[in-house]
Structures are given as C-alpha cells and as structure tokens.
Amino acid sequence: MRKLTIMNRKLWLLTMVCFVTLRAYPQDLASLIPNGEKVETAAEEQEKRTKPLKKLLTELQARFQVSFNYDSELIRHTIVENKEVTGELESFLNGLLEQKELKCKKIAAKTYVIYPKQEAPESKKRSSNEGNALTLVSSNDQPTTLSGASEAAPEQAAASVKAIIVKGQVTDEKNEILPGVGVVLKGTVIGTSTDANGNYSISLMEGTGVLVFSYIGYISQEISINNRTTIDVTLLSDTKTLNELVVVGYQAQKRSDIVGAVTVVDTKEMKKTQAASVGELLQGRATGVTVTSSGAPGQTSSVKIRGTNSINGQDSPLYVIDGMFINDSNPDFNPNDVESLQVLKDAAATALYGSRGMNGVIIITTKRGKSGVPKIDYSTYVGVQNIAKRLPLMNAAQYRIVNNLAYTNNGETPQELTPGVDTDWQSAMFKQGLMTDHNLTLSGGSENANYMVSGNYFYQDGTIIGPSFKRYQLRMNTEIRKGIFKIGENIMLSRNNTVKVTGNPFVHIQRMLPTIPVYDPTTVSGYGYGASATLNNTFGSNPVALQQHYSNESNSSKVFGSVYVEAALTSYLSYKLNMGLDYSQYHDKYYERIGRISQNAPDAGPAFVNDNNGEYFNTLIENTLSFNKTFGKHAVSAFVGYTQQKDTYKYVNAHTEGINGEFWQQDYGTSSPQTQGRLSVRGLASILGSFNYTFNDKYLLQINARRDGSSVFREGNHYGTFPSASIGWRVSKEKFMENVSFITDLKLRASYGQVGSQAISPYRINPAIDYNLNYVLGNNVVGGGINRQLVNSDIRWEKKTTTNVGFDLGLLGNRILLSADYFVARTKDLLIEVPIPWTAGNTGADPIDNLASIQNKGIEVALTYQETKGKLKYNITGNITAVRNKVLGLVQASGNQPLYGWQQVVRLAVGEPISFYVLKTDGIFQNPTEVDNSSQKGQSPGDIRFVDTHKDGIINFDDRQNVGTPFPKFEYGLNLSASYSNFDFLVFFAGVSGNKIFNEGLFWTSRYDDNGAYRTDDNYWTVEGSSNTAPRPRHGDPTKNPVYQSDRWIEDGSYLRLKTLQVGYTFPTAFLNKLKGIANLRIYASAQNLFTLTKYRGYNPEVTGANINTQNSGNNSGSNQSLNRGVDNGNYPVSRLVSFGLQVGF
Amino acid sequence: MKTYKILLSLLLTFGIITGCEKEKDLLNQTNPNSSVPESFWKNEKDAISALNAAYSNIQTPGITRWELFQYDMRSDEGYSQSPWTDLGNVGKFIFNDYNIAFIQDIWRECYRGIFRANQILKYVPDIAMDPVLKKRILAEATFIRGHLYFKLVTLWGRVPLVTEIKAPNDRPKQGTIEQGWAQVIADFSAAKADLPLQYTGNDVGRATKGAAMAYLGKAYLQQHKYTEAAAQFKEIIDLVPARYDLIPNFKDNFTEDFENNQESIFEIQYISQNKSGTPSYDIAGGSGSESSERAQFFGVRNVGWCDGQVTKKLYNEFMKEKDKDNKVDPRLGYTMFYDHPGELMYGKPYGHADRPFGPNDRFWKKYTNYWKDTDSYFSGINDRRIRLADVYLMYAECLNELGQTPQAIPFANKVRARSNMKDLELDMNQSAFREQLRHDRIVELAGESVRFLDMMRYGILGPELAGTDPGNTPANESDYDTEFKYFVKNKSEYLPIPLYELDANKELKQNLGW
After folding, report:
1. Is there a contact between A232 and A223 (Cβ–Cβ < 8 Å)?
2. E strands, A870-933, where?
3. CB contact under 8 A, B281 and A676
4. Taking CB atoms and an 8 Å cutoff, what residues of chain B touch A481?
5. Nearest Cα to A251, choosing from A548, A733, A640?
6. Which of A246, A387, A526, A580 is surrounded by the fewest CB atoms within 10 Å?
7. Which of B12, B22, B25, B29 to mutate to test the interface with A (most CBs of A within 10 A)?
C-alpha cells in the first residue's frame, strides 16, 4: 500500500518536462506522481517496472496539459509497463496498451480517449455501415462548418447528412470560459474539445447518449443529450482545488501544503478594479495588507504588510515578478498581465527571500501561453475620474468678514482684499480626468513551447490641471522544452511618460485667498498671488500656476525580466539558472518660466531648466538545485541555492539658467550652468536552502534558511542568517474526522522564523569628505572640504522574528471557507535614522542606528461563503485585520529616549504605539473667569484652553500628550460578487477604523494668525457660548492658538468606502456565433470610490503620510517615513472613477 | 545523450561563472563619490581645505540671514511688516513654532560649524606640515568656534558646549551662561595667541589677532568685565594707525568697495555671484552662491522682501543731534531710506509709482546696493562684524564704567569727528557720557547687530520700551518700538531652544518662560 504524494508539484512538472524524449529513467517515474488513489502492491522491483494506467494518465495529463477521457471502471485494474514517453503520445500509449485490450485515440488538439479495443471495430463497422457516422469534428479546426463533416477530416470525407450537431459553451463557476475541455460521447471515441472561446461542437448520429465533459482541475460532468442541440455546461472546480499549485517562493506548493501565512489573492476579482498599478488593486483584497493610494496619475501606492516593521523609509514589501525582484508596485508594470498573486506574510513564508522579504513578499506570476490554438484577447475600458469632495471654503464675501475680524481682533487695520474678485480655487484647479486602458494579448503554444505576448497602453489624465500618466508596455513570456532542458524568459519593456504634480497644490488651494484672481495680467508671470503685507496677503503659491507656469515631466524606460534554463538532472533533481535584470533609465525635466507665482519668491529669478538623467542596472543571478522525491508515505523536497544581486544606480543632473523664450534645452541657457552626478552600487550574496517534508499528506514540515551578505554593512557585519520553521496538520485527513461530514477541510498551521533587513542606502557606514564647501578669501572663491555627515559604522542587520499560528477551514463542501491567523512579530535592531541632537553638527540624514525593538501583534480573518442556486451564483468574502504596534525599546545608548517624527508631532516611546504627541485642547475660554481659573492667565476669552498635563500652571511643549495613533485598529474589506445568467455584479467595500490623521490643510485654513483660506464649517468663537471648538480669529495671534503641535489639527481617520461597484454582461454563445470571429464578449460598467463615510475633514482619509516639505519649517527630520505616518500635508486624493469596459476574445 | 551532457556541463559552468563575482568584492563596495577621512588629513592642502570649509559655515545663510532678525529686529532699531506672519513675529518676541527656520537654522548651523572646527582641532595637530602654518590653522579654527559660540550664548544663553567630536548618540549637557562665556573667552584667547596681525593676497579675510582681541573684549564687556575688556580693546587701539584706523568716509564701511579696510576688524566675506535661482552656499556637488542675502531680505519693498524695517525710534535718535554744520547727522542718510528731498531708492524717489511709500515708511539702506537699479539675493557686500569704530566706543564704555570718563570721551570723539559731529566736552559726568555713548553707538552702529546686545548689557529690555501708548500704534509711527509690548521679562531675552533639540536631547531644559 502506498500513498504517493508530493510536496511540490509544479517543481516536479518543471523538472519532468525535460524528460519528454530520448532519456529514459527507468527508476520510478511513478513515485513522483501525486495521486491519492490506492494501488495494488506488488514486489518492489515489479513496482519499479510497472504502474497503474490511471496513475500514468494522471501524470501525463499534468505533464502535457492534455485530457484523457476514459471509463474509470474499464481501466481500474490495468497495470502498464513503466516507460519513459517517446514519440507521439498517442502511439506511445497504444504501444503500452496493446496487450491490455485498450486503445488510445487523439480526438482533438489536447484530448485523448482511452477505449476498449473491441469497441473500435464496432464503431468502425458502424461508421462503415452507416457511411462515416463517426465524425470527429474539432471545433478548433472547423468552428463554422458544423454540418459539413466532409471537411472535418479526410477519413470522414463522406459525411452523413443524418448527423446531428450538438454545440455549446463550457465555462467555470465564475463564468470564465474554459478552452480545451474534452467532450466525449460516453463509451465511444467520438469527441472533441472546446476551442479558445470555450465553444465545442460535436457531430453525432443520434440525439441520445451521454456527453462527458472533463478538464483538469474540474469535476467531470456527464450530461444526457436528450435530443438537445445546444448544451452549455458549467464545470465546477474540483473540490481538490486545494491541489492547485501556488508559487510561494522559489518553489510552487500545493495550496493544501502551505503552512506559512500566505494569502492567495483572487486575481480575477482584484482585476475588476481599474488602476494603473497592482498595489492599488490589492487594497482590501488580502488580510494584513494595507494599501493607501494617491490619486496622482502614475503614483505608486503605499503597500504595507502587517503594519510597520521597519522604520527607515523602506517598509514596503518585496515584489517578485516571475522570479525577478523589484521594490515597489511600480506603475511600469501592467496589472493586466497578472495571472496569480500571492502575499507572503510570516517569516516562514518569506524566509527564503531573506533580507529582501523583511516586509513581506508579493509574488506575481504573469500569464503564460497555454498549448492549443493561438488566442487573441483584447480588453479595454474608458472612464472619467473626479475628485469627489470639495472643502467648504469661504467665498470672497464670507472671507472678507472673517479676515477683517482677524485683523481687528489683533488691533490692526484690516488688509485690503481686492474687490470684485471671487475665485473658487477648487473649481479653478479641479477637473474631470480621462482614464483608459487597452490591452491586447496573444498567446498559445504546443506541447514543447508556449508564448504570450501582451501589449498595453494606459493613459490617465489628472483630476487637477496638469498631471497625466501614459504607459506603453510590451511583455513577452516564452518557454521551450527540449530534452532535459527548459529554457524560457519573461521580458517586459515599458515606456512611461508622466507629467508630475508640481509643488503641493492641495495645500496651496487651502492657502490662497478667494480675493486673488487665478490670472493677473499685471504680474510678470501673469498669475495672481498674494500681493503684499497689506493686500491679499498670503504666502501660498498659485496652484494653477504651479502646474502651468512650471513644467515637471518625466520619461522612463524599463526592461524588466528574467531568462532561465532548467535542467532535469535526474527524475528527482533539477538545476536552474535564473538571470534577472531590472534596467531602467529616466529623464526628468523641470523648468520654471520667468516671473513668480507666490509672494515668497524673487520676480527677477531667471528662467531655468533642470535635466536629470539616471539609470538603474540591477542584476540577479541564481543557481538553484531542487530535490523532490517520495518514499512511500514520506514526501521530501529540498532546495539549495546561491544567488547574487548587484544594484547599480547612477545619475547626472544638469542645470542652466537664463533661458529666453520657450527653448528648454541646456544649450539655450545663458548663465550658471551646473552639474551633479553620483554612482552607487549595492551587492548582496546569499546562500539559501529549504527542506519540506510531508507524511501521509497529513503532517507537514517546512524548514527554510537563508544567509545573506550585504555590502551596506562593514566587513565583519556583512552576514546575517535567517532560519524559519513551520508545521501543519491537515486534521480533516485524519480517520476520526471521516464522520464529521460538514468539515470538508481543516488545516492547522504554526510557524516561527526570523528575517532580516539591510534596507539602507549604500555607503551609510563610511564617513565621507564633502567638497565644494566654499568661502571667499582675497575676494576669490576658495574651495573647502571636510566631513559633514556623521555615520555609525557599526550597524548590523535588522532582525524580525515572527510567530504565526493559523488555520484554514472549509465547511459544507467548501461552501464556507474560513482562514485565520494570529501573529506576533518583534523587530529588533531596527535600522533607523535616529534623530540626533543638532549639537552633534551633522549635515544631511541622521546617522543610522540599530534601534532596540518594535512589536506588531495582529489577527487576520478571512471568511468566504459561496453558493450556487440555479442560475444564481454568489460569493461573499470578508476580511478583517487588526494590528497593534508597540515600541518595546529604543536606542539604549541614549537611555531609550523617545524619538520624534514629522515636526515633532509623531512620537515613538517605549511601551506605546507610534502615536501623535501634541498639546491637547480643552475647548475655548468663554469668559474672563474661566481664564483666571486656568493655567493660562493672561489669555482672553476666545482663546484655546490647553490641557495642563503637568499641572504646573504653565502651558508649554512639556504638556504634549499621546492623543492617538496613525495606525488603524481595524482594516477590512468586503467583497460581494454574484452572477445571474449572463449578468455579473460586484460590490466591494473597504475601510479602516480607529486611526488619527494630522490634517495639515486644516492648520492652514484655521490658524488665523497667518492668512490662508477659511472654512465655512470652522465655527470660530465670537462671543461667550458661540463656539467651544475654534478660537477667535486673530491675525498675528501671539497666543498658542495657532500652534502646530496641537490636537486641533488631528482628526479621526476612520472611513468606509465603496471601492468598486460593477455590473457586467457576458454575451451568450448563441449570439456570438452570429458574429463571426468573436469567441467571447463581456461588457461592464464600473464605478470606483463612489462614496466614503468618514468624519475626516480633509480631501481624503486615505493618507499615505507626509511627503512634501512645507513652508512652515525647514526641518529636515522628515526622512523617516514611518515617523510621518498619518500626516496629510496635501496628499493627492483618490478619484471617483466611472468607467465602461469591454473584454473580447477571438 | 552526449550532447546533453556537454550542454549541461556548459550550463553549470556558465551558471557558476555568472553567479560568481567574487563575493568578497561584491560585498566590499567603496564609495566612489567621495574620499574618506582616512585618506584625508594628510597634508597642508587638506588642512587648508578643511579650514575653508569651516569658514564656509560662518557664511551660511542659515546664520547670516536669520541672525539679522534675531539681533536687529528684536532690538528697538528694527520692526517688521513681513507678509510672512511668523517672520514678522520675530521682533515681537512671538514664536509659536520653536522649530521655525529662524530659530532652528541658527542653532543647527552654528553647531555644524563647531563640528567642522572641532575636526580641524582634532586632526590637524597630527599632520606633518609647516609648524607655523599649523598653529595658525588651529588658531583660525578656534576663532571660528568662538565666533559661533558667541552667537549661541548671546541668543540662547544656556547652551551645550561641544568641544570635541562625539559619537552620534552623545547627548551633551546644557552649560550655564557663565560656562558659555568661559568657552567663548577660552576660544578667542587661544586664537589670539597664534593668529597673525595681518594677511596678504589670497589670505585676506581670515581671522586676525585683532579680530580675536575684539571679540574677546566684546565677550568680556557683555559680562560687564570692563577691566578685562578694556585691556583687549587697548591692545587693538595701540595698533592705530599702523594696523588699524578709521577710514575717512563712514559710508565706505558698507559697500563692496573698501572691503577689509583699515577700520575693519572682522568681516564675513561675500562676492556677488548669481549662481542659482535659490542661493545656497554650502552644497556639495557644484552649485552654490557666495553672496549675501541681506539686501534681498531687508531691501526696500518692491525691490527686496522688506521683511525688516527701521523704527521711527531709530530715526528719532538721528534727529537728536545735529552735526557741526547744524545739518542732520550724515550717517542717517547711509543708514536708512527716509522721506526727504533728494532721497533715491535704487534710482527712484519716494512717491514714484514703483516706490509708493509715505513718510512713515523707512527702510534699511546700510549694506544695500542702493546706487544700483535693483538688489537681489546676490549682494557681494562683506558684513563688517566688528570694526574699529565699535571698538573705540566699547573701549570708551569700559573706561567710563571704570570711572575714567575723561579718558573715555576722546575715543567717542574719534568716531564722532569722522562724521562731522561736534566733539564732546571732556568734563561730561559718567552718567551723562553713558547716555551719550548709548546714543553714539546707535547712530554709528545701527543695523550692525550690536543694539540688542547693548540693550541686554544695559539691562533696559522690557515691555515699557513699547511706550505709554497701549502699544497699538505701529512702530513706524510711534516714538517707541511698540513691538516691545509683547516682551516678557525673564523670557524674551533669549530664544526658545528648538523643540526638535529638546526632543532629541533630554539633558536640555527649555529656556525660562518658553
């Protein structure tokens, strides 16, 4: 008795394909085959030489992507000789079957029938008797000539006119068409297979009998013909979809064998959202994944997995696209090409990526061609997008009243505000933007090769004046198999053209006054701006001019992909060489025309142009050796590899001034040419290994380890070793579960492991001598050079240890799927630019130090309910993630002293989560008595009462306190999809709750001491009892009312958003048959971000974090992104998109 | 079969070859963009280069642009109508954001310069080079450090004293004001010992012995140590006329001509150099201007930013005393633009469409390029930080406070005489001369960043300087600097320490009242 399993089927497949011809490995091909069937035992040797036919067929199905149709009873006891495949499959099998009274016949491109020998003559006889009744018509070959069997095949030249034709379409439960499905009249060799559009057509003698539809990974269906001529069929996934192979690292695993915290994202649902980048599509689709997007065209979304683990700016996950690494969800990549996407979250799952996998790994496999006739698919959508929200900003008349009041409240003469001007800066700035996507895919292949070529054009126009993004992209994925070799490549070429957002328009909209005109012919630039201290005074920049008077463009080109060669050394051992390349080049061009657009700039500033050219050349070379073998109930796979990565980046910037006219080239500069340039190289060398063991398909063990050497650390600190282990128990496979019928599948998982990070830029450990620190002596400029930037040379690998426990549960035939994980991740020796006192004299980024530790604890739950009732099919999937972070320790050398982020409003302190740390307000002083009873004697009614935390009678910055965290307590997504007949629907909600946002826009509109726009909903104080939220407006306010580090600007960031609403219609086959050439057609209408429920008063509660320096302070402490979290200093809001799309296959 | 074996071995070989850049080489990447300290500090050239970099730091706009606001706008000479509310608030002693540029930048840039000086003091002693030059370089570095600590101590009072290179995680303790002054005194004393009296050619502009003595005297004076201060000033005065002397024309002290003249004791050096849209003096990588931004920030409205103007009180001060010819003090016309016949501001008179100013609008003229059509961020005028006239007046103050009034008066007269002012009678009593000297210092040195320190030394800072009026009349119309209405005693004398710094260094306590 043997139960044969294999941990890693895909790997086996990859290996085995190399055995197609010539080389015969007599030993145990059979033992490698995943097969739950029990087979008769025989003597060891005999077993080596023979194998059950059924098992062989299963192997061949998987290996050659073909289907076999047979009667299980018929072949149940058939044992065949164990031989390596030679020549054509059909003749090879007929050779094996000769003595078994069976025959094999290829009836269509990828479809074979196994039938009893005696039946064939009968059929033949019948056919000869009745004049070629046995018609084998493959609709692939003859899609239109359904009655003209004479053209089908030579041997059926004389087609019977009596033949009836049954046709139809085969789809899966998601209404996706299924090509290559075998369709056979039961008990005969009469059959065909579906074409690229899932259509079949079979010519039969009579309208009785049973058609058998079979396809790998799906449950075969038998349907009585009952004289029907159209039979559409929906095949249901094999309940063993758990056998689906999932790429989870260097190897693929059966879904059922996964023991790490891995989310397999439903890419079909995901792709129903329209966006430029994959990151954006991921929002709300996977537990533990936080995505915040920006509405700026071509902008990369921020993706975080399981909270903030690393602080030093690089806490985004690693993307592994077809085996090549990239560090962001760059919009270079066309999301249409995604075939599958997995998110690896715990250390066990990411261990093989070592240092690169610290922040989680997103594995993307792009589409590949499938054997069969060439397929052409085209999809497109076109939509319009808008910024949904308008801030309630005052018009000129309202503004005048409040601004005058602000001046009078300070004893000043009100400033002049231009009469007759009433600019609505939001209307001036916002516009409708077009978004469109065209995607054409050609794919196909044969048994020994496949290809996929896709072309994409994506265009997104901004929702404000100015920005846009264009992408032209071409992908080629091919693979050929020859002998023991498999050679392939995945190459992407892309060209992007971006017009960037210049400056910070969403803040400047809130700083411009309604009494300033957009265009002003009296200024040098032609744009309106704050005129002077006494006329329309503001330091805001004209946001329209920022986009029009300045130009900010970027072109980039990219070659991204890998070439690989795989050799199957033996049946259980294969070697792979993978060479990856990420080459990109960019040219940023920025120019300013003459004339200022804000009060705070020189008018005389010359027109200038900057040309910045840069190049990334990142290579990856991997040598890996895989082992895969099953010994009885023991399945073992192992894997070792040696890899090297080298990232090279260089740039040259050129600047010139005094451009006359619209000649934005360096050659046209007349003064001050300047250049800059730099080169940086990073190296990483790694040894990696993995060991997987499965006993009896029930008990799973996985051990991974990786040793990384990184050039960013000094010699002696180069290396870090990161091990992990995980175990799984498939409880549902146990005997005692056999009677628990409602539990279809239950797996318990646990893992423990460590990963590391080296995510700092090169050369941060060695102090450098900086030159060009010049002075004037003897009336000449003299050069100087000295060390300016402090470094900490003794930094080490950052290490994150994760413990993860979870389970996957399938109930009632997997109609209900529940998956849950609990994790504790502790990061220690966190690499961070620790804000050091300025007394140290450092210039540039602060030195990096290894921080003590941060802990993230969380729970992730995903629940799915799916049901089919007649024509109605629906699926409800909900997921929720709760992560809590806590600082366990900080820099010990400085006594765990708290660290502060963005403008000293974000704080890390031991024992607390990363929090906003500001002065807390406690209403407004209503009358002099309240002032006298407070710690703020000398204030006036209408001023803010701050909480005197220290109760020392003084309000100062020592009274700051923790007022909440920028991290959501819960993040959730709810997806409802349904189809009825040919219609399909999708509703997708996503949201977060429990977080705070620092609304810097509010600071500008409501500080009143400095002139900005005002909000109509600010409800400022005028007389006793008029307001307890906003103080009296006072220009030049000398009190603490306008203080930046105050909870006045901090708001609840919770939101619930209808992300996607979609209705689609798939045209029925019958209709399409009339439109010659179109195999399938779906149209849909979709709306994104239709509504948002939130209390947040800024444009958009989806805040990526502060990224633009503000006028308010030249503080350079903003480089630690996680210390800027939740700060909205003008984030570009996501758009509301309404679009119509079309998907068509030929 | 054979073919495959060959292919396979080729593949393995190729794979291993391509996979194997020598790991050691791959992991030991050296920075190709700059040299490292180990290869620096080797010779005289390196020492000079480092020293130039330290000088570069006393010229940085983060200090030189903003200190004008802290010293001159906070005094009763200046006030602000800046459209930038926060900047306009400086002279009103209002700081809502302790990290605001004009606080943060000065603090940070001073310590950056101190770091550079400390590097020189640490590494240059080990360089094998001409011992005389080595001593001078070390003395210059010490001078630069003293110069920066002088700013820190006068602006913040209690500051950390960093005199050597520390690890990044060092959290220095706060010094007392006394310790701060002691550091300043120590640095200038040490510098004085090894600095030469004079430079020639391409070294003109470096710190001299005289500069160290002048600063040393100034530091003593600020602590009311008149004897010690007088001794230093006397040493300088003893060099008149061989080394120092007043130059004939007062106005020549504030132009691009006559830089580093006989009267000048220490200057921040600039040249007019329009090198970029936004000037930055200290950028590694090629760009950078070596110009002064003063004219742009204080320049007449419609020419510069006009972020700081002249109080009516300062104007009144000039009106107190007529010259020998019974004319207005001639220094007035070179100190400020004010509405009077013949006044041209960059070629255009009051009331011109481009100069729509009234009699109450007065602007700084000192250190501007007023004879040109316009001004910019790229003024080449050196900033005379200490000149002989100042030394004369400080010496006079020392002698007067030491009870030697008759000996003091002639030094004031030297300064007055140059500007055609009548000689003071030698029989003035101590307190009358004290008052007179205060006046003389204002009219001679207005806008040269001495007044706020003078007021502090005199002990006259207080809200009463806003006048009897509730302080609501603008400073350009009142006879008082009405901005003083916001002055809080025992608070406003010093600036708040940047919040960033307090958060980064728990050893520090915020200044009183902030």
Report:
1. no
2. 872-889, 899-900, 906-908, 915-918, 921-924
3. no
4. none
5. A640
6. A526
7. B29
Q: Are A215 and A182 in contact (CB under 8 A)?
A: yes
Show which of residues 1115-1144 on chain A sit within 8 Å of chain B, judged by CB atoms. 1115, 1117
**Chain A closest-CA separation from residue B305 CA (Å):** 8
Helix (H) or strand (E) holding B423: none
Angle between helical axes of B209-222 and B226-237 (0-180°, round to 10): 160
Question: What is the complex's ipTM, to 2 decimals?
Answer: 0.94
Interface test with A, best of B9, B26, B66, B161 (most A CBs within 10 A): B26
With CA atoms as reference, report the closest residue to A354 among A685, A603, A14.
A685
Using a CB–CB cutoff of 8 Å, tell me whether A671 touches chain B: yes
pLDDT digits 0-9 by tens, A123-169: 433 333 333 333 333 333 333 333 333 333 334 433 444 578 888 88
H or E stretch covering A804: strand A798-811
A308-321 pLDDT tens trace: 655 554 667 888 88
A212 near A183, Cβ under 8 Å?
A: yes
CA B271/CA B276 separation, integer angstroms = 14
E strand map for B12-166: 78-79
Interface of A with B in 852-891 (CB under 8 A): 891
Q: Are strands A816-833 and A780-782 parallel, antiparallel or unpaired?
A: unpaired
A842 to chain B: which residues are within 8 Å by CB?
A: 112, 115, 168
pLDDT surpassing 90 at residue A614: yes
A837 contacts in chain B (CB < 8 Å): 160, 171-172, 501, 504-505, 508
Q: Check residue B156 and give left, alpha or beta (phi > 0: left; psi -120 to 50: alpha).
A: alpha
- pLDDT tens for A707-739 read 999 999 999 999 999 999 999 999 988 888 888
Distance CA B105, CA A826 (A): 37
Tokens 């700051």 appear where? Answer: A960
Residue B141 CA to residue B135 CA, distance in Å, equals 10
Type of residue at A345: K
Q: Which of residues 480-509 of A touch B (CB under 8 A)?
A: 483-485
Residues 1096-1115, chain A, touching B (beta carbon < 8 A):
1112-1115
CA A1126 → CA A177, A224, A916, A1100, distances in Å?
Answer: 44, 61, 9, 12
Q: Which residue of A has its CA nearest to B28?
A: A711
Taking a C-beta distance cutoff of 8 angstroms, is the pair A63, A57 a contact? no
Could you tell me if A473 and A455 are in contact, meaning their C-beta atoms sit under 8 angstroms apart?
A: yes
Q: How far apart are CA A209 and CA A188, in angstroms?
A: 10
A425, pLDDT greater than 90? yes
Which residues in A lie closer than 8 A to residue B301 (C-beta atoms)?
532
Which chain B residues are Cβ-neighbours of A604 within 8 angstroms? 374, 376
Question: How far from chain centre, in Å, is Cα B503?
Answer: 27
Residue A725 amino acid letter: A
* Both structure tokens of A666: 């360096």
A928 at B interface, C-beta within 8 A: no
Mutate to test the interface with A, among B10, B22, B31 (most CBs of A within 10 A): B31
Closest residue in B to A791 (Cα–Cα): B168
What whole-number distance in Å separates Cα of residue B255 and Cα of residue B259? 7
Per-residue DSSP letters for A770-802?
E----EEETTEEE---EE-S---TT---EEEEE
Given A538, A710, A787, which is nearest B37 (Cβ)?
A: A787
Residue A530 touches partner B, C-beta closer than 8 Å: yes
Question: Taking residues A626-633, what's their average pLDDT?
Answer: 88
Report the alpha-carbon distance of residue B442 to residue B316 in Å, rounded: 11
The Cα–Cα gap between A759 and A850 comes to 12
